[in-house]
Amino acid sequence: MSTENNVEFPILKKFIDIGNRSLLIKGESGDGKKTLSLDLARNVAKDYNIYFITGNKKPEMMHTWYPWTKSFLPSENIIQISSNELISSDSNFLLAEMLNRISGTVTTVDDPFVSDVEPKKPFIILDIWDSIITEFNPQLKMHAEKLVTSLADKHNGFIVFLSDKEEHSSLEQLVDGVIQTSKLYVDNYMMREITLKKLMGMEIQTSKIPFSFKNGKLYAFSSFLHFEEECKKFEPVPDSKNIFSTGNQNFDAKLGGGFKKGTIIGIEIDPDVDRYAFVPFLLPLVLNFLSHDNSALISLSSDQNAESYLDHISPHIDDQKLLENLRLYCHTFGQSKSQVVLERGEEQNFESAHKKWLEHYHQLKQKQNSLLMLVDYSFIELGYRGNLDAVLKAMIENTRIIRHNKDLMIMTSRPGFQTLGVMKSACDIHFRVFDHNGCTFICTEKPKLFCSNIQTNSSLGFPQLQLTDVY
Amino acid sequence: MLSPTIPKINDRLPFPFDIQNDRLRFQSTTVNSQKGYYDLVEKKFISAQKMQKLIDELKPDDSFEIKPDDSILINKIKKRINQNLSFMQKNTRDSYSIKLLKYLSNRFLSSQSDQNIQNAILFVDIVKSTNLATTLTPDEMSSLIKVFSQEISILISKYSGFVLKYAGDAAIAFFPISNNAEKICQNAIRCAKSMNLLIKYAINPTLEKFGLPEIKIRVGVESGNNQIVFFGPEPDLIGSTITMTAKIYPLADPCQIAIGEEIYKKLNDGAADHFFQIQSDSKKLPYTNSSTGKEYAVYLSKEVFS
């Protein structure tokens, strides 16, 4: 999981550490090339002197836009070739000027008789390459590319070329690494990703890495991590008069306080998503209900085991609250002795199964408290294919009861199931959970609120949802 | 030809000090408006002015000698040692001068690859360095060895010699014999004497300032033929002279010089008078000289520089 001081792209740091000398970062304007190059520089600043050669960033503006670069990129290392020079000078002059600036970064022998303190190598980000080579013919361009890449080797340093241009065949062959930053849109939400095209000496296992920005810095998304820490009791978050907390203050803030009472939440989950992605999302919500002496009635999927489900919940809450407030409706084939588990039985007829379900609901409601209803309808649909109309009708009936009693209902379904269509129509908030390049994301389809990467935060001793927005 | 824009390094300097002709390692260039040389191996720029000064400090000088009353020279050396010892706690590398001297030595040997050359060989090591290693911190020990290695390397160069290799607290040097064997052999012995004076008048007083213990050295010198060979990329010397010198130098007491019979024969009477032959059976070498068939004679300096 990423933290403030983490190396966001370990593969790129390793690529530099093993002795490679040059990297081309391609991408359109606004795709994050500069931020990525500066983040790489931050990671290697211990061994390198960082230089940023630019045509349009005044040193003071660089530090305003990227305040976190102040610690490793001093003003004097931001070398500006002014826009006047860029307009009025020919490319040969600019190249010579730039080479001189780079040569100026050479380590010099100060006192030949005094022990040498380990020098820092130059790490040069060229944000001006496109402007320089724009007027060069192919031969001159190749010559210039060779000249600059050989400089990196000569000075034991590392050069990063930033380019908006798509076509760079000769430079791509010369440099040790080529990566591309790009944007794509998922349901109107902008996703950023880095494509690793060539990294000499590295094994590229995942060629596309999704990323975003956090506090102006680059943030690489990683694959979903399961909860692994020592278990501690859940710390409840108070509900307000009309709103149920999600059990996570940050998630509440994103939703404008939490879920309004009487709300129907629909979660559409793509088939390739890790099912444990539900744990940091739903477990705090269930625990928060139980902690406030509200009830939770959960219809488990037919492939879920009631005992292992309880194993996830029970370490984080008192047994008494669990026994009184939680009911799991599922097939146990008579195996479970827990009072919490309600045997669904071998009902072939959905109507009678639904009738039993409502009985359990009303039983829990006798306490006059609020209730959380949680149903995975794609599994219900699978189990009662012959009674699909009844299943769809029951979905509507459940939503009506929940709204009337100002409870909360979470229903889930998957693409390809008819229950998904009803869920989309009936719910007030429609979440979609999907996988993108090995990372799990959640977005709100209705209304459009946010799109975030899902991660488990285990620091409190119980699973917490950690959301990082994509933008 | 050297680029006309670069100031010339003294063009009378003999190989291998004529670095301006060494295009494989030094590239004439200008950095920050300063003309000089880019060292392609060290990946560093050295201005022509500094390079000139450096070469002047290192180039052989027939009149060079360390004299106890030469306060200008001694203070200059002390200042250099002082600066290097100030870096004691830092992660430092060898100075540029020591790297250049090693390179000049390799450059010389590589130019005569696979030849059998006549040399005076000098071995020097710090007496009881194991005791030092156990009492000093690794930083202190490495600073001490670096200072010692640098200063004796400069001395060796001033006496027309080259450092062949460093081995911890010891160094092996060679003094190529061209046409004047007597002069080169005397140079090697003068160098050995200067090493002892360097320790006594420059290194030890500065070590004391830094709270470090004083050091003493033992030096052995012999002359003869050696074969230049390459073990890997680095040139090396092998032969009986090197082997005999390694046997000779432990016979010297601390601050004393031991020489073999081959170099002794090449000394003039005045120089030879400073040595006496080891007579004690316990100190004699159990070897015979293959050219004379007699037992190998070793001589010790009458003067002990403690």
Overall helicity of chain A = 25-40%
Give me the CATH fold name of the largest domain in chain A. Rossmann fold
**Mean pLDDT rating of chain A:** 85
CATH architecture of the largest domain in chain A: 3-Layer(aba) Sandwich
The coarse overall form of chain B would be globular
Alpha-carbon distance between the termini of chain B? 49 Å
Task: Find the structural class of chain B using helix and strand composition.
Answer: alpha+beta
CATH superfamily of the largest domain in chain B: Nucleotide cyclase, GGDEF domain
Beta percentage of chain B is 15-25%
Between the first and last Cα atoms of chain A, what is the distance in angstroms? 19 Å
What value does the average pLDDT of chain B take?
A: 88
In the CATH hierarchy, what is the architecture of the largest domain in chain B at level 2?
Answer: 2-Layer Sandwich
Strand elements of chain A, count: 22
Strand order of the largest sheet of chain A: 16-15-14-17-18-13-19-20-21-22
Oligomer: heterodimer
CATH topology of the largest domain in chain B: Alpha-Beta Plaits
| Poorly predicted tracts of residues of chain B | 1-7
Largest sheet of chain B: 8 strands, mixed
Kindly give the count of domains of chain A: 2
Instruction: Give Rg of chain A in angstroms.
Output: 29 Å
